[in-house]
Amino acid sequence: MVKLAAVLSILVGLGFGLPCAYGIWYFSTRGEVWTFLGVPTYGEGPFEAIGIQTTVLLLAAFLVVCGLEVVMGWLLWRGLRAEALPEEMSLCKYSRSCSLSSTRYYLS
Q1: Predicted model pTM
Q2: Residue 15 — pLDDT band, cuts 50, 70, 90?
Q3: Phi, psi (5° rounding) for residue 51?
């Protein structure tokens, strides 16, 4: 199951990240949002509805998130854990269901 999660995480990261990289290039060179099959890819959405215009910085932030998704998939594939909280700060000390066999899960 972990290998499947790793593969799906990598596919999602690449599937959104590669078009985003192209979208950044397109937006920075042409000054307009890339349109794919008649649909604007990274614009005219909820951000613009509240007044936040599409910028290269906003697209780059999304690309960073996609890259982190790929890194997470790679870590899952290798069986490595990246713990977000030390055990002292974990909510697991208040719950009995956080430890399965020898693996400890820390909730953020």
Answers
A1: 0.67
A2: very high
A3: 100, 5
